[in-house]
Amino acid sequence: MTNSPLHVFPSLDELSVAVADAFCRSAAEAISQRGTFRVALSGGSTPKRLYELLAKRELDWDHIEWYWGDERNVPHDHDESNFRMVSEALLDHFPSAQANAFSVPVDTNDPVRSADRYEAKLKDVFHGQAFPQWDLALLGMGDDAHTASLFPDTAAISENERWFVANYVPKFEAYRYTLTAPAINSARQRWFLIAGANKRDALARVWQSDPNRTEADQLVAAQVERYPSQLIQSPTWFVTQDAMPG
Ligand code: 6PG
């Protein structure tokens, strides 16, 4: 099991409602304290229902900035684009939100330069910080225990200096774009949203890490054990019952 906060739900719908409630509370608190709520969004399919629910909530749209924690190396109108998924579920409903959405400037022919440009944007926004201090980083987990686009056996899981990189993923024979582990761990809050029985085994392995291991040792272990989701420090887990290890 995990030592971090864990919330278990019977269904993805109920998980998404709970996360939407927490998101609204967190955004209101950040805006009242710091004037802006900066969130790094997760892609894939799990968070789509959350984004659809947020589109129906009363949010202070003018003071929320939307970023992507990872992206695929495809045009923004491609059906695999995380930008397209978030836009259709949420941002297209609010022109002001689109104005505050900062997507990865994907040039499929030059993924390294695309990542460098996005990293420069982030360093401009989080000027002077060692790593980007998001108010919230939303994360998913694959059935191979990857998170963002930090896939097992890829260079990015060992990157501890850069904020955002192009990461070649052999199993896809393609580049992905991703925040690095330190650029996720620098977030004030890190929430995993995990649903589906196909995630159960990976979650069991991610939680199997030795709770007595120091965080530094755990970072090394994660890279060795190739369960990149272990790289994320002190997350809050939002998990459906069917994804819970037996
Ligand atoms: C992506 C995501 C990725 C995702 C996991 C889980 O771009 O695909 O950011 O890290 O969270 O792959 O994806 P599902 O939610 O579709 O299972």
Automatic annotation (TrEMBL):
Keywords: Hydrolase. Pathway: Carbohydrate degradation; pentose phosphate pathway; D-ribulose 5-phosphate from D-glucose 6-phosphate (oxidative stage): step 2/3. Residues 12-214 form the Glucosamine/galactosamine-6-phosphate isomerase domain. GO terms for biological process: carbohydrate metabolic process; pentose-phosphate shunt. Its EC number is 3.1.1.31. InterPro entries: 6-phosphogluconolactonase_DevB (IPR005900), 6PGL (IPR039104), Glc/Gal-6P_isomerase (IPR006148), NagB/RpiA_transferase-like (IPR037171). It catalyses: 6-phospho-D-glucono-1,5-lactone + H2O = 6-phospho-D-gluconate + H(+). GO terms for molecular function: 6-phosphogluconolactonase activity. Belongs to the glucosamine/galactosamine-6-phosphate isomerase family. 6-phosphogluconolactonase subfamily. Hydrolysis of 6-phosphogluconolactone to 6-phosphogluconate. This is 6-phosphogluconolactonase. It comes from Neorhodopirellula pilleata.
